[in-house]
UniProtKB/TrEMBL annotation, chain A:
<keyword id="KW-0547">Nucleotide-binding</keyword>
<keyword id="KW-0067">ATP-binding</keyword>
<dbReference type="Pfam" id="PF00005">
    <property type="entry name" value="ABC_tran"/>
</dbReference>
<feature type="domain" description="ABC transporter">
    <location>
        <begin position="5"/>
        <end position="239"/>
    </location>
</feature>
<dbReference type="InterPro" id="IPR015854">
    <property type="entry name" value="ABC_transpr_LolD-like"/>
</dbReference>
<dbReference type="GO" id="GO:0005524">
    <property type="term" value="F:ATP binding"/>
</dbReference>
<dbReference type="InterPro" id="IPR003439">
    <property type="entry name" value="ABC_transporter-like_ATP-bd"/>
</dbReference>
TrEMBL record, chain B:
<dbReference type="InterPro" id="IPR027417">
    <property type="entry name" value="P-loop_NTPase"/>
</dbReference>
<keyword id="KW-0067">ATP-binding</keyword>
<keyword id="KW-0547">Nucleotide-binding</keyword>
<dbReference type="InterPro" id="IPR003439">
    <property type="entry name" value="ABC_transporter-like_ATP-bd"/>
</dbReference>
<dbReference type="InterPro" id="IPR012700">
    <property type="entry name" value="PhnK"/>
</dbReference>
<dbReference type="Pfam" id="PF00005">
    <property type="entry name" value="ABC_tran"/>
</dbReference>
<dbReference type="InterPro" id="IPR003593">
    <property type="entry name" value="AAA+_ATPase"/>
</dbReference>
From TrEMBL, chain C:
<keyword id="KW-0949">S-adenosyl-L-methionine</keyword>
<keyword id="KW-0479">Metal-binding</keyword>
<comment type="function">
    <text>Catalyzes the breakage of the C-P bond in alpha-D-ribose 1-methylphosphonate 5-phosphate (PRPn) forming alpha-D-ribose.</text>
</comment>
<keyword id="KW-0456">Lyase</keyword>
<protein>
    <recommendedName>
        <fullName>Alpha-D-ribose 1-methylphosphonate 5-phosphate C-P lyase</fullName>
        <ecNumber>4.7.1.1</ecNumber>
    </recommendedName>
</protein>
<comment type="similarity">
    <text>Belongs to the PhnJ family.</text>
</comment>
<keyword id="KW-0004">4Fe-4S</keyword>
Length: 239, 265, 304
């Protein structure tokens, strides 16, 4: 198996200028993820699990280290990649799944779900059909498909969000507690879809409150708790 | 300190818009100091900063209404070469009419308040040489419809319209010729919050339908967050920080940006 | 050599009233105006013994062009016998010793307010039109500095916008007299307040037309054989006044531009606006031998 992602000596801290101090989130993290591998991030609250995911997605800027990503165009260091390249990879190869939907006014649920496919060049009819199928799997009732999700309940919005986030097979998927507050049926659908993507070779890094949901998918656990590091995975410096 | 970024490697297209090392002084006031900006095709660049930060001056330069003391401006479009600040008045006018659309905060700057709304849109087409009444009418109607302007008010003069509707007329005028670049100068400032949301919504939809490159200037972070892919933070005529929109809002680096983001969140 | 040999005897006024330097300036500005058709040339409009607004611009051009052999015709709203036309005609004759006529065919120089005669003018005739407002852009751009830039850039979108607004509001183009027209495909001019009926007469005309605004100090020209195209939308044709079917109640002539004369009881009768054309028709009816020229309009239609 080839590594899709190699994280090497990655450090992230927040400089809070108004307080005049720096809060370290994690430092000198190193691990790799292979294609089709599912890595669970573990650690106490504040250990930097979500921070790491956002740093990998480049919502956060790291201070040091490398995030070597094997994209379909070749290797690129996500820690240093140009913004336009990051935006491009987010559209095509790197997915980020949270429990929150950024609904847009007057865009129907099925259109929101179909959008990643449309951006990837799938024909409109085809994309819509796949989108409806995905909504069905996640348990969104057909009469809601053409409706605007801005008015949906939190649970329904979350299903739309998952359907959208997982509709296009990605090379790397970052999962930030996607199962939180999901009902049993949707959770089952999510796990099934993750298993499917995994079998297609998607590398996944996830943070789960209840890892039991995805237990059978987990290949490896990386513990970010500072005093509980494994030399091989992680070299940390005390906060 | 964060890491220095590399040049783009995967995205081979060139930015549609490039402003390089622009400086401008008005008397003793340095309005812009060595400002550079770019926007890729289909990208929405948000420029935030308080009043007097130079953001509106920069936007007016992008619309060729002002010329800097130093610096250059280029648009990567066919038949558009070199430093656009060097163009003469005639060439500027044609370029602005056909390639650039602008929506001002103050509709009086962008509209003939006593002419019909459709006529305001038609003027753009007339400048570009359209001489068929039926075509003018049809294209003006299409642009107004795309801006979600109520068509029963097609020929009402903007002076009789609400602020939100006036902005829609400006928007229709700006997009009538399907410009490559749309400039928005505080397009929703001064509108009621609910109207503001509707106008933003229209902008968002237009952006998604047409993949138009936009530069939006606002002191309102909510507006920028709603629309922008990338954000440039300006203060006292200088760029203090640029980054992907989610990064600027979630992990602002500069003290000023942190202050701005925390004040608004 | 004595001083008296080098100077001319004292005269009460220069030939043709205007002094030599004023005429030289006007000649130069007329040449410029002819060289750039439809483009307004500024000139130092001189005082003449007539109030501004009564044709002082046209008069200065006429006084510059006239010589003792020039036959002069002056018309006001089509009539040779109105007070203003008669006064100007007498003044020109008096200061230049020029012969006068009312017959369009006999005239070398025609000064006119608001009309172009119905008989076709020839290559050796000059038409001088009096202009109150020379700037066609004034209704759309009150700032004259910007208006001049717009002319320089051929930035005429606003002019068409004005027509657009008229059609939207009234269902048709409302512009009557002074219909803005594109000269030689470049400059928009106002043809002076001639009716729409007369504008096509300027298009590819054999004669030279000089337009002069005394109060506004602007002179411009339509040289012979120059395109003069009224501004229109490609799908909304230019229309002249609906006078083609009207008959003059005095001369019986039909198919020309008419003056409407309201009658008691709300009806109207019509009288041909070109008074000398009417006179010719009456004389012909009375059996006199008159020479009538070719007309631009035939059977109420502009000849192609």
């Amino acid at each position: 198996m080839t590594a899709v992602l190699e994280i090497d000596g990655l450090s992230k801290a927040f400089d809070l200028h108004h307080l005049g101090n720096r809060i370290a989130a994690f430092s000198k993290i190193s691990f790799a993820v292979d294609a089709g591998e599912f890595v669970l991030l573990k650690g106490a609250n504040g250990a930097g699990k979500s921070t790491l995911l956002r740093t990998l997605y480049r919502s956060y800027l790291p201070q040091a280290g490398q995030i070597r990503f094997q994209s379909s165009h070749g290797e690129i260091d996500l820690a240093r990649a140009a913004e336009v390249d990051i935006a491009y990879l987010r559209r095509s190869e790197i997915g980020f799944v949270t429990q929150f939907l950024t609904a847009r006014p007057r865009v129907s649920a099925e259109a929101i779900v179909a959008e990643p496919l449309r951006l990837a060049g799938v024909a409109a009819d085809d994309a819509l059909e796949q989108a409806r199928h995905a909504l069905d799997i996640f348990g969104v009732k057909p009469d809601l498909w053409p409706a605007y999700p801005t008015t949906f309940s939190g649970g329904e919005q979350q299903k739309v969000n998952l359907a959208r986030a997982l509709i296009l097979p990605q090379r790397l998927l970052l999962l930030d507690e996607p199962t939180a507050s999901l009902d049993a049926k949707a959770r089952a659908a999510l796990v099934a879809r993750l298993a499917e993507l995994k079998s297609q070779g998607t590398a996944m890094i996830g943070v789960f409150h209840h890892p039991d949901d995805v237990e059978h998918l987990i290949d490896r656990i990386v513990d970010l708790t500072p005093d509980h590091y494994n030399e091989e995975d992680r070299a940390d410096v005390a906060v | 300190m964060t890491l220095a970024l590399e040049a783009p490697r995967f995205v081979k297209t060139l930015p549609l818009l490039r402003v390089d090392h622009v400086s401008k002084t008005y008397g003793d006031v340095q309005a812009l100091r060595d400002v550079s900006a770019y926007a890729y095709p289909g990208e929405v660049l948000g420029i935030v900063g308080e009043s007097g930060s130079g953001k509106s001056t920069l936007l007016r330069m992008m619309n060729l209404e002002e010329t800097p003391d130093q610096g250059s401006y280029s648009l990567n479009l066919p038949e558009t070469e070199g430093n656009l600040f060097d163009l003469d008045r005639f060439a500027r006018r044609m370029l602005c009419a056909t390639k650039i659309g602008i929506v001002y905060q103050n509709p009086h700057l962008g509209l003939l308040m006593k002419h019909s709304s459709s006529g305001n849109v038609a003027e753009r087409l007339l400048v570009a040489g359209e001489r068929s009444f039926a075509t003018l009418r049809a294209k003006a109607t299409t642009a107004l419809e795309a801006s979600e302007f109520p068509l029963e008010r097609l020929d009402a003069p903007p002076i009789e319209l609400s602020g939100g509707m006036q902005q829609r007329v400006q928007l229709a005028k700006a997009i009538a010729l399907e410009p490559a670049l749309l400039l928005l100068d505080e397009p929703t400032t001064g509108l009621d919050v609910s109207v503001q949301a509707l106008v933003l919504d229209t902008l968002k939809r237009l952006q998604q339908d047409r993949q138009i490159t936009m530069v939006i200037v606002s002191h309102d972070l909510g507006v920028i967050r709603t629309l922008a892919d990338r954000v440039m933070v300006m203060r006292r005529g200088q760029v203090v920080e640029t980054g992907l929109a989610d990064q600027i809002f979630q992990d602002p680096q500069h003290a000023y940006t942190q202050q701005l983001v925390h004040a608004k969140l | 050599m004595s001083l008296s040999e080098l100077t001319k005897p004292w005269e009460a006024m220069s030939y043709g009233f205007l002094d030599a330097s004023a005429k030289r300036e006007l000649r130069r500005k007329m040449i410029k105006a002819v060289a750039v058709p439809g483009c307004q040339m500024p000139y130092a409009s001189r005082e003449v013994p007539m109030a501004r607004g009564w044709g002082t611009g046209g008069l200065q051009v006429s006084l510059t062009l006239v010589n003792p052999e020039t036959t002069v015709k002056v018309i006001d709203q089509g009539a040779d016998d109105s007070v203003n036309a008669a006064s100007i005609r007498r003044f020109i004759a008096r200061v230049a010793g020029a012969p006068v006529t009312m017959d369009t065919l006999q005239a070398d120089l025609i000064q006119s307010r608001h009309r172009i005669p119905e008989e076709i003018l020839s290559e050796d005739q000059i038409l001088v039109l009096q202009v109150p407002n020379p700037e066609p852009l004034r209704p759309v751009q009150p700032n004259m500095s910007i208006a001049r830039q717009m002319h320089a850039d051929a930035d005429y979108g606003r002019m068409w916008l004005q027509l657009y607004e008229q059609i939207v509001r009234s269902g048709r183009v409302m512009q009557g007299a002074s219909y803005p027209s594109l000269v030689h495909g470049r400059h928009i001019m106002t043809p002076s307040p001639i009716p729409r009926w007369d504008v096509p007469k300027l298009h590819m005309a054999k004669h030279l037309t000089i337009l002069s605004a005394g109060r506004e100090k602007r002179i411009y020209a339509v040289p012979p054989y120059t395109r003069v195209e009224p501004l229109v939308f490609s799908d909304v044709p230019y229309r002249v006044e609906d006078h083609g079917g009207l008959t003059c109640h005095r001369s019986g002539t039909k198919g020309f531009f008419m003056n409407e004369i309201p009658q008691d009881g709300g009806t109207s009768t019509y009288e041909v606006s070109d008074s000398e054309w009417g006179v010719k028709a009456i004389r012909q009816r009375d059996g006199e031998g008159v020479i009538k020229g070719e007309t631009w309009y035939k059977n109420g239609e502009m000849a192609q």
